[in-house]
Amino acid sequence: MDRVIFLFFFTLISILLDFYFFQIFKKYITNKWFKILNYIYWSISSITFLNFVFNIIDINLGYFIKTLIFNVVIGNFISKVVALPFLLIDDLRRFSKRLFSRKSISKENTIPRSKFLSISASLAYGIPITSLTYGIISNNVYDYRVKRRVVSFDNLPKEFDGIRVCHISDIHVGSLRNRLAVKGGIDMILNEKADLIFFTGDLVNNKSDELKGWGDDLSKIKAPLGVYSVLGNHDYGEYTSWKSNEEKNRNFKNLLKAQKEFGWNLLLNENDTISVDGNKIKVIGVENWASSRFQQYGDLDKAYNGLNNEDFKILMTHNPSHWNAKVTDAYNDIDLTLSGHTHGLQYGIDIGDFRVSPVRLAYKQWADLYELNKQYIYVNRGFGFMGYPGRVGILPEITILELKKS
User: Fold this and answer.
1) Of 123, 338, 349, whose CA–CA distance to 228 is shortest?
2) Can you give the CATH number for the domain in which 154 is found?
3) pLDDT tens digit string along 162-220?
4) Cα(315)–Cα(78) distance, rounded to whole angstroms?
5) What residues contact residue 345 under an 8 Å CB cut-off, 6+ apart?
6) 368-372 and 336-339: which strand pairing?
7) Residues 142-167: tens digit of each pLDDT
8) Which of 137, 164, 190 is the last residue before a domain boundary?
9) Same domain, yes or no, for 14 and 43?
10) Is the pTM of this model over 0.85?
């Protein structure tokens, strides 16, 4: 229900903005060519409305069509939000002039819009589109960055004080084309010499066949205390067509088999123990679980089986919405949660401790480290990319977490 309400108000605001901005655009549709632009303008508004309808009645359009629609809707919305202040300032100016004018102003003699502010609004509208184009041609999708954080815990066993954890997520190997750049990213992971490596899902876009030719490279990802992985929403093959359920199931089994061949410990609603000098921590891995429209194969009750409150616990769950919906309430003894999924929308501003992205509208925790009542979640920005073949501001990430005993 929350999602329906959010989509309703988002669509309503988007369409109201379309009508508001049309007052500038209509000045330029006096000839036949600009009339064509008029049709294009309202087509985008129609796509916004249809996006709402498709989500409400749950029509399955396929992942790529849904991604295209999403990019159009979000790009249009962001562009208008950026340009909106210029129009508001102009309308405030016109209203004030009308209010305080000593002469009556007839409809035929209305106060014209400021040419400067109108042009500024038009230019501002183009900034997001320009930046999205830049994100594609700049090849930022391979500009891997290492993010380092130190996280302290009261109950971390002293034998694990200073342990270095590498967290990666959302490789989306089917999107990767620059093999040399990807190998460079893998070398960056290995050069960190982390004690543990955690991968939090979305190895492929749709099919296990995407992994062909990548086995040797992904098998290099190793750590002294092991590599652990879980599944993401894309790993189940649900965003593509299959000839039969048997083919889909075979694809899924091949994906599981590949991770085993890489030497990764894939956790499917289960937990494992990591021991150092006789002491231990627990790693919990659940299948994909989301509080909204994505799959809910994750079973945290099952994965938690056999654990107790005194254990130091790290949870791997692909979608960060799981943390708010389940972990911080029913499992408030889980110390650290690792997630991915959001990619930071691959668009935003990410400078130092300042981060902003439209994806914040959908996820409370969407990038970096968050804390609530001594529970932590780290959301990785993603190693690969999906849908939009670029990144603006939110760059691909390799996370290094140093765990310290308080």
Assistant:
1) 338
2) 3.60.21.10
3) 999 999 999 999 999 899 999 999 999 999 999 999 999 999 999 999 999 999 999 99
4) 34
5) 74, 357, 358, 359, 366, 394
6) unpaired
7) 999 999 999 999 999 999 999 999 99
8) 137
9) yes
10) no
